[in-house]
Amino acid sequence: MFEKFLAGKTAVVTGSNSGIGLGVAHQLARAGADIVLNSFTDRDEDHALAQSMADQHGVKARYIKADMSKGDECRALIETAGACDILVNNAGIQFVAPIPDFPTEKWDAIIAINMSSAFHTTAAALPLMRKAGWGRIVNVASAHGLTASPFKSAYVTAKHGVVGLTKVTALETAQEKITCNAICPGYVLTPLVEAQIPDTMKEYDMTRDEVIKKVMLERQPSKEFATVEEIGDTAAFLCSPAAAQITGTTISVDGGWTAL
């Protein structure tokens, strides 16, 4: 799986200084791609993370700051990268509240970061892919791009929108060597999720195992988290020669959630 089949390609991964985005970036780097990491901060550790990735995988890697809530910065990220053979739209945030109580500013931020950013980066990346004669767009959607949960109106709306954008992008590039697909993870064990476990144990007076299986993974039939490496491997597969005719579809990595 990990021969350097992406050598000579440049991958831009949004929201990638931690969690799923970082996991995807590592797996693409293992396959030989040069990497552009991104988030909205501009700290020494962000740039050190890129250098560490370059050293670990023997590729070029750099970090570019861009706020995914702002369309002009989304487009500038691609322009600054200079090349974008692979675009992974991963940046996302979450907020939970009933619709009547959902703060307008939270709705606007989630729609902008989780959905509109993918439109802006795609619009900027497609001309570069067409010039290169090859491209792969991987949108990190969610099980919530295919189904819904209460109190997550903005997130569910945005992720459904990402799935729709994926299909339109695929149709507009169907006769080119460019594909666009969406990965739909269920619950993934990221540092952010890991950090929530101790508080949830206290709140419900449960063991770690009980919290994971009865609370966090209640809707995930496998009762196991997906890993960031598994999401990364799925992204790498979608960029591989084997996936050349896979476009405009979703791949669920959700332990059976959307089979219910």
From TrEMBL:
Swiss-Prot/TrEMBL keywords: Oxidoreductase
Enzyme class: oxidoreductase
MF GO annotations: 3-hydroxybutyrate dehydrogenase activity
Superkingdom per UniProt: Bacteria
EC identifiers of the protein: 1.1.1.30
InterPro entries, per database record: 3-OHbutyrate_DH, NAD(P)-bd_dom_sf, Sc_DH/Rdtase_CS, SDR, SDR_fam
Keyword Zinc: no
NCBIfam families per UniProt: PHB_DH (TIGR01963), PRK12429.1 (NF009093)
Family: Belongs to the short-chain dehydrogenases/reductases (SDR) family.
Protein's name according to its UniProt entry: 3-hydroxybutyrate dehydrogenase
